[in-house]
Structure formats: structure tokens, C-alpha cells
What we know:
The protein has two domains: about 1-210, TIM Barrel (Alpha-Beta Barrel); about 215-300, Sandwich (Immunoglobulin-like), CATH 2.60.40.10. It has helices spanning about 20-30, 45-55, 95-105, 150-165, 200-210; strands at about 1-5, 35, 60-65, 65-70, 75-80, 105-110, 140-145, 170-175, 190, 215, 220-225, 230-235, 245-255, 255-260, 265-270, 275-285, 290-295, 300. By secondary structure, it is α+β, with helices and mostly antiparallel strands.
Amino acid sequence: xxxxxxxxxxxxxxxxxxxxxxxxxxxxxxxxxxxxxxxxxxxxxxxxxxxxxxxxxxxxxxxxxxxxxxxxxxxxxxxxxxxxxxxxxxxxxxxxxxxxxxxxxxxxxxxxxxxxxxxxxxxxxxxxxxxxxxxxxxxxxxxxxxxxxxxxxxxxxxxxxxxxxxxxxxxxxxxxxxxxxxxxxxxxxxxxxxxxxxxxxxxxxxxxxxxxxxxxxxxxxxxxxxxxxxxxxxxxxxxxxxxxxxxxxxxxxxxxxxxxxxxxxxxxxxxxxxxxxxxxxxxxxxxxxxxxxxxxxxxxxx
Length: 302
């Protein structure tokens, strides 16, 4: 089975207009399996959310994290249960903070890397110089508070370029909630899990292996079978998802992009026909940025 994650959310413990209780209720109502609390530079909401879940027996799990909010960009850690000081952050060597968080068991990601930044939102654009992506777990390729074109598309392109160069980076999405926004047709993060399993540990496992999907509600899932890569569509029944009449699958490699019609729900391709690394994406009708439904984990030959 697959589980839905909402990995970027704020409360009135930092700068949002919603309480911890409202955030919890909002996630439960939208059938989220696991959500993160990632307030800016504080973990004060962790205790509140834990007590609420215990008191209400809410049918949901929470990843307790934080968003480092600096003048040079934001680092989102959906799993960060122990506060890691960041007063010595180095714009030229941000890897030190990523690594310090990783040592405490955190999951680390670059948030909304191409936000408008100055003069509209100082510090929101990621302007740190990462030279070693080793301690970086993922790129937030879609931030639902940002427009797809050009900002999210730039983040998707950056992630793809890094992956095609050989970097091991997962892709994730975030609502970046600051109020009770409708989540219909917004992108969420999906990962495999077990019924009754620990969703946070399953998330950590998936991100470490770059096996996450970013989707509005339909996944392009692939498996290797007898020298072939077999794709199928899997419906996540996400509230508000609008089903298109036609699905297009693209595979991007260093040599370019190939398109396939997968409206029948399944597709099989000889692995030998693929480049060493290709990135699958699913679209509604046409392969244009605004029609993107899902970005899937990269396929590596061998």
C-alpha cells in the first residue's frame, strides 16, 4: 500500500493563523496518513500535537520537525525531534547544518528553492552553495503555495538535473500551510508502507532510498520484471482529484524526453531501451508543466 504525507505545515507556534488542533483536524478530514509540523525555528508545537493525538485518538500519525528559516534560504526537516542549533550556519558550507541534523536522526530537505525572495520574501529563495549533497535527503520540488510556472517548474528541473548527474536525492512536496487551505488537486508526497506500520519510519526508509512520489492523486508506479520496466497507474483516491481522459507518461534522461500514452493504465518497456538514469512523470492530456500529475522515483539501469 501507499501512504500520503503532508510534510510542510505551520501553526501559530510560529507565523501561521491556525492552531495545532486546527492543523490536526484539517489533516484528519482530508484523509492524510501522516503529516509533519515544521514551524519556523521552533519545536514548541511538538508537545501540543503529541498530547492532542493521544487525547483524541486521532487516526493519523505525525512527523515532528522544523523549518530552519534563514536569510539565505529555508531548510525543512519534517523529522527533527531534537533541536539542533543553527547560529553558526555558513552560507558557503550549509552542509554542516544538514549533517548536524542528520546526526540527530533528522530528514533534511531544501524548501521552495526558487521562491521569489527579495524584495517580496527575504530569505525564501535558497541561495546557499551546496557542494556536497551527501547530507541532503530531498528537494521540495513542489511547494503548493508557489505557482507551478515558473517557480515549481524550476525546482523540478533542478532536482532532475541533479539526479541525472548521479545525485541520490528524493523528491517531495509540501503544502507550506499557514492557514486552512483546500488541498484538492494539490501535490502530496507518497511512499510505500504497511497497514498499521510506523509511517514516520516508512517515510525515512523511502526517502533514504529515493522511493517517493509527488502527486496530485494518481501514481505512476514501476517495477522491473524479466528485463522490462512495467508501469501501472495507482489511484490514491485523494479528495478532490480530477480524473483526466488521457494519461501521458514521459521518461527524461540526459538524451532527452520520450513520451508514451498510458491511458490504458499499464505500459511495458524493455529496460535495455532506457538510458542509465531516467525520470518518469505522469501528465493529464499533454506533457506540459501545468498538466503534471505525478513525478515518480528515478529508474536506474542494472
